[in-house]
Amino acid sequence: MRILHYLSEVTLEHGGVVRSVLDFSKALASAGHEVTLACFDDTSVPGAWKCGHDSAWRAGTPRAITLGWPGLPKAIRRFRWREAQVMAREIAACDVLHVHGPWESTNAQLAAMARRLGKPYLLSIHGMMDDWCMAQGALKKRVYTSWRVGPMARRAAAVLFTAEGEKRQVMKWLGGVPDDRARVLPLMFDASEFAELPGPEAARAAFPSLRTDGPVVLFLSRLHPKKGVETLIDACAILKREYAAAERKGAPAFRLVVAGSGTFEYEAALKKRAADAGLSDRAFFLGMVTGREKVSLMQAADVCALPTSQENWGFVILESLAAGTPVVTTKGVDIWPEVEKGGGAVISEATAEAIAAAVRGLLEDPAKTERMGSAGREWVLRWLEAGSVVARYEGLYRGAVDASGVSSR
Q1: How far apart are CA 214 and CA 266, in angstroms?
Q2: Residue 72 pLDDT > 80
């Protein structure tokens, strides 16, 4: 099949949606499909994928095309004439179009093109319409949903969710989408870098804060208020008070390691909060960590904590489990029931006191921590085995093409 993905901005600093689309494209191309990824911002697109508008596909490699930047906010962004012509040609040449996210107005523009050309399209919501998200700028989002998102969703061959919890939250906004076209499928998770773990030594060599004895509590994600970094800092302040007597008797001090980037002002505010909480001696901010060094950092941690208010998929949770490190997180993650059943995570209330108690329960029971790490790793690698996930999407795409009456190649 010829599959066209569209995501306007492909830069990994924007989080898990970008990661999932890159992994989708790579896995589908490896399975023998002719995959094109179209975008405005190709910052994180692998160089080998970039080919220009008129290039042919190469076996096993996605073909990426970069469009001219329109320079407008997402909700009113439109393809200029030249880019619209390019995308019309791409849609005409594909068997199925897959657009990512509800709030990008160019997605609705592409959906209309696909309808005119008789090509099916799928819409992935990516957690952008769950209860927490819809409460942010609520009136604007409700108006835009009625005007743009609802009609686009109702005409899609399928509307995709990553968890039953997400589907329940979103369907009330998408009245008229038949239940058989509201589909729950996991995102693609490229676990290849977790098949053979590098061990914690690389991270310890790279980051001096990891070289001393004592347990490590890791936060690894984009630094944003919804991620709950402040809650974790406050939880660690509670733990420091609780462990003060033991540490005075020589017990090694735990450390809080924060890996991720955000705005300069927000990062500065987090560092000040840690200092004000008396954590200057044990809170370390590493900046963004990627690749094998990131996997090694997860292995060097005793627990990975993400006290988030909202997370659809939570790649860092799955990555931590794949690295064998147990997780403390909240019901703000749409896939929390699946993660909890996997055996590698503690699901907590999103308060400093509850997070502190959950982290303490792991730090004080190393045997339990090791068991949970092993269970979580085994579960996530089995649940998100690439071949089975790809097969489910292949079936969905073929069903959309068959229902449209267009012959696939």
Answers
A1: 28
A2: no
